[in-house]
Amino acid sequence: MFDIINNSFKKGLLTEKFILPQDESSRQIDSAGEQLKKIIHKLYGRSLHLREVDTGSCGACESELIALSNPIYDIQRFGVDFVASPRHADALVVTGPVSRNMALALKKTFNSMPEPKFVITVGDCALKGGIFRDSYYAIGDIQSITGSVVLHIPGCPPEPIIILHNLISFLKQKS
Ligand code: SF4
To answer: Ligand 1: which of 134, 152, 156, 163 to mutate, most ligand atoms within 8 Å of CB?
Structure first.
């Protein structure tokens, strides 16, 4: 144990210092984020909790959603958080064309969420199956499983800034 600590001191810092870029795109993220923060404060008090379900996507839509939490976007600072439990979620975010194997999981997740709740679809597959529409394994009908989809964010996949802007426009209408 002490050898490990000693070694760490001897080696020092091995990672590079991360400096956030101060360019036009980071200014865009900051100003969009501040808008989002104000709306979330008005509608939800302090935060908006999202539960994400991948119903059989290629993985790219999730990568873009994950990017929202990286140090560049850091969406948590604006009051948006991805949660593990549906019981803690205000909204359900769905990606992928709803494969047969994921239909029940999607239904159970949605049913476990407290009211009021709403559903957001991210990426073209989540709307009506996208490129997987004609696959025998894609059901592609989130609407019939969850009752309603109030916001669809298009793209294949949509970039994080697009997701941010769509979320702002939608929440603005609610506020
Ligand atoms: S919309 Fe495009 S990126 Fe997203 S899961 Fe479908 S194929 Fe992948």
So the answer is: 156
Please tell me what DSSP assigns to residue 132: G
Contact 60 CB / ligand 1 (< 6 Å): yes
> What distance lies between CA 159 and its chain's CA centroid?
11
Residue of 54, 58, 64, 137 best suited for mutating to test ligand 1, as the one with most atoms within 8 Å of CB: 58
Give me the DSSP letters along 68-92. Answer: TTSTTT-GGGGTEEE-S-GGG-SEE
Whole-prediction pTM: 0.87
The confidence score (pLDDT) of residue 140 equals 72
Report how far residue 119's alpha carbon sits from residue 133's, in angstroms, rounded to the nearest whole number: 20
> How far is Cα 101 from Cα 51, in angstroms, rounded to an integer?
19
Length of the chain as a residue count: 175
Beta-bridge partner residues of 25: none
pLDDT digits 0-9 by tens, 75-131: 999 999 999 999 999 999 999 999 999 999 999 999 999 999 999 999 999 988 888
**Percent of the chain with pLDDT strictly greater than 70:** 100
Q: How many CB atoms lie within 10 A of CB 5?
A: 9
Determine the Cα–Cα distance for residues 131 and 146; give it in Å rounded to an integer. Answer: 22
